[in-house]
Fold this protein.
Amino acid sequence: MSNLKYRLLTVLASILVSVWFLVPRNQTVKYRGADGVLHETVERHIPLRRGLDLQGGVHLVLEVDQSKQAIAPDKIPDAIDRALKTVRTRIEGFGVSESVVQKAGNDRIIVEIPGFDDPERAERLVKSQAFLEFQITDKSGALDKVLPRFDQIVAQSGMAPTVAKGGAKPAPTAAGGLQALLSGGDTARSVGGGKADSGKAKTPGIDTLGAKTGPFQSSIVGGSALPGEYFVPFDKVAEIETYLAMPAIEKAVPPGKRIVWGTDSTQMGGQWYRALYMVDAHDIATGDDIVDARPSQTPTDGTVVEFEMSNVGGRKFRIETGKHVGDYMAIILDGRVMGRPPVIQSAIGTRGQITLGGRGLAAAQDLALVLRAGALPVPLRVAQSVVIGPRLGKDSIHKGLTAGAIAIVLVVLVMGIYYRFAGLLAVGGLAIFVLYTMATLAGFDAVLTLPGLAGLVLSIGIAVDANVLIFERIREELDRGKTVRTSIDEGFRHAMPAIVDSNVSTILTAAVLYQWGSGPVKGFAVTLIAGVAASMISAIFVVRTFFLVWLNRSRGARQLSI
C-alpha cells in the first residue's frame, strides 16, 4: 500500500505539473533603460504556439543582389553560407520561436516566420546590410563649390530637364537658402533650431554659385546652421538621386568627401524637403566595433538605440571624437544618415546612442537587432515573398484535429472491445499520455506544426502498441494458470525489454531526422520524440498504477477481463 500511495502521488504531481506547463501565464521581462535603471514589463506567454502552416506567417526567399555587388558564380555558395549565419542570428533575436532559416540549393536562403503578418518589416530586417559608419560633416562648403560642375555634367549628358516658358516656378535655390524660405513673415523655425534671420544666407560659399539654372543649383537648398546639411524638395529627390548615381558625377565629388541622403524630412515654406549631407569620407568608427545594442526611449531624444563598443573600438572612437569636439558627426546606416548629426560635446568612449527621431520603438528594436547580429557579408534581395493567411492555418488545424479525433476514437473502440476492462485502463493511460506529450512540447517551448500533429497522431499508435504487448503477455500468464496479480506483474516485466527496444529505436530515428532535417521535419521529429517518451511512461508506470489501484480495491481479484 505504501508503494501504491507513492505511485498515486507521483501520477498526480506529474498531471499537475503538466497542466501548469499548458496554462497561459504572464512573464516578467527585465530591460535596462537609457537612464541605466533596470525596468520590468509583463508579457503574456502562450504555450504551444502554432507554426507557420497552422497560424500563417511570412515566407521569404533570399538571394545575392548582383546589382549591388557582382560576385563570381563559383563564389555565391560561400557568400550564401556566410550570409546564412547573420540572417539566422537576426531572426532568432526577433523573438519568434520555431522560425526556419535554411539554405536552399547553393544560391538561396529560405526564411519562414510563423505568426508574423508584416512582410515589409520582415524584408527590411533580413536584407538590411546593417553597415554602420560614423563620419564628420563637411565644414568647407565643398558641395556649394562643386554644384556648378555637377550642373555642367548633367547638361553635357543631355539628361537635364527643360522647363517650358510660363511653367512651374523653380524651387528655392541654394543662394536664397533656408533664410529665403523662412523670411517674409513665416513663423517656422530653422532646421538649426533657432529663428531664421531675414536677408541673405551667411553660409560661406553660398553666394559664389552664379546662375541658378541647373537641376542641382535650382533644387538643393543650403544655408543650414549645421555644416554640410542641405535639403531637396520631395518632388526633386528622385531626379537628384538619378544624377548622383552618374559615374561622371561620382568622379566630380571632391576628394575625401561623400554625399549621403538623410532619413529625416522637414517642412519649410509650406513644402516638404529631404535632407542631404556632404560628409568626410574618412570613418572615425564603424559598426564592426559594436558588441551590444538595445532600444530605449528618453524624454529628450525620443526613440534611441544605445550601443556599446569593444575596448579596442572604444579607444579608437575616443581618440577620433576627441579630435573633433565641436564638430557634427553623421551616423550613417546603409548609406543613409540616421536623424540629424549631433554635435560632439566631448570625447566619446565605448558607449553612445543613435537617435531615431519620430520613428517608433519597433524600428529601434529592429535596428538594435541587426547591429548586434552584424552586417551582411553580401547584399541580399528578396526573390519571393509570400504571406500565408490564418484561414489556411485554420483549415490545417481542423483537418489535423479531425485526424487525431478519428485516431483516438478508433483506438478507444478497439481497446475497449478487444481487451475490455484492461482496454479501458489503457484508454485512461492514453489520456494522460496526451497530456504528458503536450506538456513536454510546451516545456521545451516547441511550436506545433502540421507535421507535428502527424507525429502526435503516430505517437498515439505507438502508445497503444506498448499496451498491446503488455496485455498479450498478461493473457499468456493467465492461460498458464497464474493468479491475476502474478500475471500482471509478469506481463509488465516480460514486455518491458520489447517496449524499451522498440521505443529507443524510434527515438534514435527521430533524433536523426531532427539533426539533419529541415524545419517541418524537425517539427515532426520533436513531437515524435516527446510522444514516444510519454508513451513509455504512461504504459509502464501509469497503466500499471491503475492495475494496482484496481487490485487493491477488489481485494485480490481472481479474474481479469482482458
About this structure: The CA atoms of residues 447 and 537 lie 23 Å apart. The radius of gyration is 34 Å. The longest strand covers residues 257-268.
